[in-house]
């Protein structure tokens, strides 16, 4: 069974999903050891999470979404720490540069034990007006994902996705 998962895993994600997952898996191996089956399982889980979330903001007005029990705390702490971060269009340095990591690390660590799997790998869209594609996806921790997506929802940046999907139905 294990071999089947690694043979068909990425193919089961479809072209876009496989591209996003493959991109995410190009990150340092120490992020998840070197068992290829684990990598495929992680990629599928991360992609499924991304797909569910995108479908959610496409069908429910994002300003009414509650992503965690701690949305208010995550949001206020995020905006205190990252006053000027452009969440509409992120770039990799906003999350990955040494300077950014120094600010993100204590931000994320304050939620250890409060947000389930707070440092679990998640896929995050760079441009919130676009879907998950290889060019528009970055690897982030779950707390980074929550912080940015809660802010995007509350500040109206995800409305474009909601309006474009709801106008098609």
UniProtKB/TrEMBL annotation:
Recorded GO cellular component terms are:
cytoplasm
**Gene3D superfamilies named in the record:** yst0336 like domain
A Pfam family annotated for this UniProt entry: PBDC1
Q: What is this protein called?
A: Polysaccharide biosynthesis domain containing 1
Species:
Oreochromis niloticus
Record InterPro entries:
PBDC1-like_dom_sf, PBDC1_metazoa/fungi, Polysacc_synth_dom
Stretches assigned to the Polysaccharide biosynthesis domain: 38-162
Taxonomy-wise, where does this protein's organism fall, top ranks first?
A: Eukaryota, Metazoa, Chordata, Craniata, Vertebrata
């Amino acid at each position: 069974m294990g071999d089947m998962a690694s043979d068909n895993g990425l193919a089961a994600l479809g072209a876009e999903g496989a591209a996003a997952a493959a991109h995410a898996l190009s990150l340092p191996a120490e992020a998840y050891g070197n068992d290829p089956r684990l990598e495929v399982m992680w990629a599928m889980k991360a992609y499924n999470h991304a797909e569910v979330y995108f479908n959610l903001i496409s069908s429910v007005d994002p300003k009414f979404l509650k992503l965690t029990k701690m949305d208010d705390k995550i949001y206020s702490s995020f905006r205190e720490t990252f006053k000027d971060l452009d969440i509409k269009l992120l770039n990799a340095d906003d999350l990955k540069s040494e300077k950014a990591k120094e600010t993100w690390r204590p931000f994320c660590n304050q939620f250890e034990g409060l947000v389930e799997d707070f440092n679990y790998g998640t896929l995050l869209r760079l441009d919130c007006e676009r879907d998950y594609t290889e060019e528009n996806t970055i690897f982030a921790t779950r707390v980074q994902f929550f912080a940015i997506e809660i802010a995007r929802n509350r500040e109206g940046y995800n409305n474009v996705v909601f309006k474009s999907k709801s106008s098609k139905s």
